[in-house]
Amino acid sequence: MPAPLTITSPANPRLKTLLALRRRRTREQERRTLVEGYEELGLAMDAGVVPAELYICPELMGEQARTGGLVQKAGELGVDLVQLSRAAFEKVAYREGPDGFLAVVGTVDRRCADLDLPQDPLILVCEGVEKPGNLGAMLRTADAAGVDAVVAADPVTDWGNPNTVRASKGTVFSVPVASDTSAVTVDWLRAHGIPLVAATPDTGTTHTQVDYRGPVAIAVGAEKTGLTEAMVAVAQHRVRIPMVGRANSLNVATSAAIIVYEAVRQRG
Length: 268
Prior knowledge:
The structure is a single chain. It is elongated, with a radius of gyration of 20 Å. Helix 7 (132-145) runs parallel beside helix 11 (252-267). By secondary structure, the protein is α/β, with parallel strands linked by helices. The protein is built from 11 helices and 11 strands.
């Protein structure tokens, strides 16, 4: 493998192109995003992602990263490898305590119609969820629970947001995800005969009182506003999670995990 290009100056113009990918408009125009972290990048590559560029900083790498073969694998795939000084890497890193791995990859750009569903799918619909950290956390739950697809309905953020990628630990590349309007999402579910279960506090039915066996989609909404009235109105079931404390709501990622795992329990 040839020696990588080395950049030592934080002011190098090439680094400005990396910083630009923090902006959604740039990501959408270039159809590229950033993956930072050894574990996140490893999972993405295991899912078939081939980075366009890989930036490394040996000074920041831990022993596992030095010996794990990820850099060698990237080289064998023909990835453009660039070595950065610590100062240069810390300029472009977007997480605290960077571990010396930052890659440029293609964004996930998929609509509901592009999803290939198995028989009796389990789907998670996230409507209007605004925080990348919550989207990423729900992807980790979806990955762990074997959810067949996650749909961002009327998304406020994009799947390529670097903080979503980080919070998902790279599972945004291993779990089938899509983005669409709420109306298109509902029509798509209806066309595939998939009942919708809406999480809302305005119901007497708890999340354990619904049958999740067979095809089913579980919908959760934004933290402040919850699901839209339109989404709740078309749901075949409306469920709530029992709460006895003073707080009037749970974190949306926590709510999604509770309901998804009740579905997993029932589906056996």
